[in-house]
């Protein structure tokens, strides 16, 4: 006889995005989930309640003005990195709900952004076939 397949039903479903979700990250505590996608915004949900606790709308002045492709929390959960089709990556202070660093220099969509182990360097990967290293503590 063949092996049995067991399908698991999801324990919870969180809704609140207006378009496709392309990026997903959970904070180190596991209590928050950040989503980003085709609506150009970033939403942070409380896992327990499923409610939006932070929304960064896409716009020229506050958030991304193209799709969000990548999200990543810092080890301490204080910072959230985002990567976008607007050719930028941003560092967000989650508590202050502000962008603390805007990294531009790629000529294609930025698909991923990750933070180094020591938390000082951000690496971004782009459709322009480059990887860039940024010291996010240096002023723009």
Automatic annotation (TrEMBL):
Record has Repeat as a keyword: yes
Ranges that cross the membrane: none
Gene3D superfamilies noted in UniProt: YVTN repeat-like/Quinoprotein amine dehydrogenase (2.130.10.10)
SMART domains, alphabetized: WD40
Sorted UniProt keywords: Repeat, WD repeat
WD repeats, residue ranges: 14-55, 61-102, 103-140
Pfam families noted in UniProt: WD40
Keyword match 4Fe-4S: no
PANTHER family: TRANSCRIPTION INITIATION FACTOR TFIID (PTHR19879), TRANSCRIPTION INITIATION FACTOR TFIID SUBUNIT 5 (PTHR19879:SF9)
Protein name: Uncharacterized protein
Organism: Rhodosorus marinus
């Amino acid at each position: 006889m063949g092996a049995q397949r067991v399908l698991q039903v999801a324990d919870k479903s969180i809704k609140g995005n207006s378009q496709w979700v392309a990026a997903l990250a959970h904070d180190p505590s596991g209590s928050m989930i950040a989503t980003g996608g085709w609506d150009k915004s970033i939403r942070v949900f409380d896992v327990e309640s499923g409610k939006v606790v932070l929304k960064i709308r896409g716009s020229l002045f506050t958030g991304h003005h193209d799709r969000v492709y990548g999200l990543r929390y810092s080890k301490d959960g204080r910072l959230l990195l985002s990567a976008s089709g607007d050719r930028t990556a941003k560092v967000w202070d989650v508590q202050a709900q502000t962008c603390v660093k805007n990294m531009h220099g790629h000529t294609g969509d930025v698909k991923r952004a990750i933070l180094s182990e020591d938390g000082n360097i951000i690496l971004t990967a782009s459709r322009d076939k480059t990887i860039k290293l940024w010291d996010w503590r240096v002023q723009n």
